[in-house]
Amino acid sequence: MQPYLQEAWENAQVAKRQAKDYVSRAPTQLKLAIMCTTAPALLIQLFARFRASRPDVKLELIDGTAQSVEEQLIGSVAEVAIYCRPDRASDSRLNYLPLFREQMMIVLPPTHRLTSRDQIEISDLAGERYVQRSFCEFNDVVDSVFDARGVDCEIVYRSD
User: Fold this and answer.
1) What's the CA gap between 53 and 51, in Å, rounded?
2) DSSP letter at 147?
3) 13 vs 8: CA distance, rounded Å
4) Domains of the chain and CATH, by start
5) What is the pLDDT of residues 102-138, one digit of tens each?
6) Bridge partner list, 29
7) What's the pTM?
8) Which of 31, 59, 104, 133 is a Cys-bridge partner for 78, taking CB atoms 3.0 to 4.6 Å apart?
9) Among candidates 63, 65, 73, 112, which has minimal Cα distance to 93?
10) How far apart are CA 150 and CA 115, in angstroms?
């Protein structure tokens, strides 16, 4: 029995040594693609936690639209990505993990007619002027909600 146990022991030691060698050669840089509309405050907290747990890994950040971020991830330009594609189903080639949720809100000047309300319906926005985020992944979603309810808003500005 001893020769078999000795061989198993030696194989286990070789495997352990190979695993340690692999970990020591692990990349010290991580390419992270980030959707340009992600709230910076959420990212700063995420980066601080990552840095605290993995100070040996340097992040290379790649900024882009949700579509370009997904393409860079699928094309192996980035190893990981933070993005949202509400207009599409999940891609079976990718693994997804929810990180956080962002609140959508309406921002109004203090003297606006809707400011005093506790609740605002989509129909209340008919005829209102609207600042649209240029690369927002929710533009099509918002447009379809407005269209479904017959609400027209005037886009007066576009902004990153």
Assistant:
1) 5
2) H
3) 9
4) 2-82 (3.40.190.10), 104-160 (no CATH)
5) 777 788 899 999 999 989 998 999 998 888 887 777 8
6) 58
7) 0.62
8) 31
9) 73
10) 22
